[in-house]
Amino acid sequence: MNNRNRGKNTGDDTLFGTGKQIDKLKSAVQDMQYLLSRDYAEKASSELVGNRYRLKTRQIQSVRGASASNAQIQNRKSKQLEVSELENTTIYLDGFNVLILLESLLSEAYIFQGLDGCFRDLSEVHGTYKRVNQTFSAIELIAKFYQNSKVQKIVWIFDKPVSNSGRIKQTILDFATENNFNWEVDLEFNPDKFLVENAEIVVSSDAWILDHCKNWFNLIQYVMDEEKLAVNLIKMF
């Protein structure tokens, strides 16, 4: 294994590590909620808010991820399932979304809880996925959830065009075979559309998926609570 992780970027402690900055971000999210609820476009809203509070690029990114309109929040909350409702079901994971978020969380990067209750990070995959020191630990956390929740089957969906998606698919399949888990891993050209059209229950923090899916489960919240993980968490509300 290499020495890579998905921890903080240089300067993140300055952007997110003080009460003054966090208060500013919370105010920005409130303003974004107001604008989005009145049908302002997300890009225009984030530009207005970013200018008003003089936010840096990564701060704007965190605010956009945490924000939603009143209608979006209500819609997402109405489709959220409890762990007690998952027994004997099939769960579809938005593979890179879930895996990278867990890797970031375990790497002590800043994690942001949005108005919809979901958690998001600031990591991005620019066409290539690279394993990090925390990858296997992240997969093990999914395994604990799988066993404790008595889910019948987990289907991981990864972006086929992303380089190394085939490698992480094989890594997960090998792990599932070794442990006799009922896991499936598929590569899709348009995973977001696939998940919305084919999954009864989705695990993702992607806003578009949450808006259009049938049902979803907040796996990151579950893992944090069950494992009592120490997290650099910022609640953006």
TrEMBL record:
The protein's superkingdom reads Bacteria
Q: Where are the transmembrane segments?
A: none
Pfam families recorded for this chain? DUF434, DUF5616
InterPro entries documented for this protein: DUF434, DUF5616
What residues does the DUF5616 domain cover?
A: 84-221
In the record, which residues are listed under signal peptide? none
The record places domain DUF434 at 24-79
Protein name as catalogued: DUF434 domain-containing protein
